[in-house]
Design goal:
2 copies of one chain form a homodimer. Chain A contains 13 helices and 13 strands. In chain A, α2 packs parallel to α8, α3 packs across α7 and α8 crosses α12. At the A-B interface, α3, α4 and α8 of A face α3, α4 and α8 of B.
């Protein structure tokens, strides 16, 4: 931070942003990493860099910013259901939604688990569509041994404060295509002095030096924090083992993963309480349990009003929205916290029918 | 900065952002100041908060981001010419451009000089239009004794690194309307947990704590830096006095101003060299002279291609684009620098006809 003040170089792609971009590109084994003010803006810039028009297919089971970014970029989101096992978009689910107005597919690597990359690549190629990814969850994750950041035409990452790699606010886009990289860099800066290639609309999406400095510190810790997350994930797995209807989202042990989201599936048929009842009780015990994502993007404003055709047609998304729960993980969570939280869950579920009766009588 | 790390509260409207918002509101005497990631994004959010549709009239003689923000917000920019004396949009210039599709007027307080506030207010009221301002240049400036930030329905400020009040990257919107403030705050955060009022499309426009910390430091220095700028402005005035065809943009001494832009008018009829020739020679002497704004927003891509109807119809904007020049000012400029720069200008212009001959023979 002191260096930033000494140099009086606060933004406009100063030395810290350039260093962060080089280190990210090297870490992910990708030609270009282009830092931006945040992940949402990076998605908006990516959509413009691909010169998209009309409709873009994306999964409804994603953070709402994925869909918001498309609207800001002048596009129509087409909400796709997801696979019940992977929770992500697949070629099988996306294919029937393609129309003459479709220009692209925006895949999402939810929980850091790659979506159906091979299937979507074939589909996009066969149908002449552009393909890009929201990789907000997936920094440091791999697919068939290759780092996320190398797939599709662009991948977009978040460096929000809640992420395992963070710059307080921040994000970046990656690509192996030099022309797309030039477009991303050009659109990022509203100022015509920084023009690498002729593009249309531009914006201010610049990352400041202070953001980059925090991002660099965080990048140093990415590997160790991911390992730490993995240990906590394993601890949750041990402590919740055998509880009827309770299971963790699983990861392929042969791939790299950041384990930054601890997602529990609460099976409404098997568990003694519903996900919503369980979250309510955990919140009362001051456990930061969250319903994630509830509702799906297609059922949140403005999408539910502007695109009502999706509201009742995405059963897997609706089901996942009603049964998944996020539990605490990360730097400030210890293995003992995990044991305490899991002990609470066990106690609550063991008294499930009694608790449910009381909840209902409280009305 | 240390406090930010200690608190581990990096974004999402932490204590520093709240402190900056309170201090800005108090400084400007306005009910609400709402910090955002940068001024361009703040303009986009402001346009959405006003629920605008269709066409918005704005001056063509402005930084291009003013027009870019409207496109991102799904609106059509209608480029208006400016007044030759004030360089800003006036009711007289805007009135003929109003159509059935016009939803708003976006005024710009160029060089910190308020645009035709009274005229635009009457016009907007008579025609049922919304009225908001790009006040990126005008923090700490006043109109009829009242601080800029209190006019129209929203005013939007920039805290870019190049500004007299800066947070490296940053911006904020001000309003005296509680409902609009709630809309601005809601749209700023993509997350539904922070919903103050039902709105449509949201975005991530959050300012981080690190940005706010830098903004607070800069706010402490705003008054002294403005005074310093004023001294340099006066020095430029003294040193350039009597040079044919050279004059400074003037300010109303009865109003507050930040004097952050040192703008020189080079009259092509009176000066020995054109603005472009003068800038070229000053650049060769390592003086940061800039042609400002060249071209006008209506002649820059994508607007010149998408809205060609304005290209040849805004004579005052075109004239100003060809004759105004910005000279160095601010923290790193001393009164001696001003004397040196003005000495150079005097020497160059005194040898104007000789230099012009050489420039032409060089082709």
């Amino acid at each position: 931070m002191q260096g930033i003040f000494d140099r009086q170089f606060y933004t406009n792609h100063g030395p810290k942003v350039r260093e962060l971009e080089e280190r990210l590109a090297s870490h992910l084994g990708v030609r270009h990493a282009i830092c931006m003010t945040n992940g949402t803006t990076a998605l908006m810039v990516a959509a413009r860099a691909l010169d998209l028009e009309g409709q873009v297919i994306l999964p409804a089971f994603t953070f709402i910013a994925t869909a918001q970014a498309l609207i800001w970029a002048g596009l129509e989101p087409v909400f796709c259901d997801v696979d019940p096992v992977t929770h992500t978009i697949s070629a099988e689910k996306a294919s029937p939604l393609i129309t003459q107005n479709t220009s692209a597919i925006l895949g999402v690597h939810l929980w850091g688990r790659p979506c159906d990359i091979q299937g979507l690549e074939s589909l996009a190629q066969n149908k002449g569509l552009r393909l890009f990814y929201d990789a907000a969850h997936a920094v440091g994750c791999s697919h068939k041994g290759r780092m996320i950041g190398n797939f599709g035409e662009v991948e977009v990452f978040s460096m929000h404060a809640t992420k395992v790699l963070n710059a307080a606010e921040g994000g970046f886009a990656t690509t192996n295509d030099d022309l797309i990289a030039d477009k991303l860099r050009t659109i990022r800066n509203f100022h015509t002095t920084e023009t690498f290639v002729e593009t249309s609309l531009r914006i201010n999406a610049k990352m400041s030096e202070a953001q980059a400095a925090m991002g660099l510190l965080s990048l140093d810790d990415l590997a160790s924090n991911s390992l730490r997350n993995k240990d906590l994930y394993k601890a949750y797995g041990r402590c919740l083992a055998g509880l009827p209807g309770i299971s963790l989202v699983s990861y392929d042990e042969n791939e790299a993963n950041n384990y930054q989201y601890l997602i529990v599936d609460v099976d409404p048929e098997q568990a003694a309480l519903s996900r919503d009842e369980l979250v309510l009780l955990l919140e009362k015990e001051n456990v930061l349990a969250r319903r994630y994502f509830t509702p799906g993007a297609h059922k949140a404003p403005p999408f539910c009003d502007d695109f009502p055709q999706y509201v009742d047609t995405l059963p897997v998304t609706d089901s996942l929205s009603s049964r998944l729960m996020q539990l605490p993980l990360g730097e400030n969570t210890t293995e003992q916290d995990v044991e305490t939280i899991c002990g609470l869950i066990r106690t609550i579920l063991n008294h499930g029918s009694e608790i449910r009766q009381r909840l209902h009588s409280m009305g």
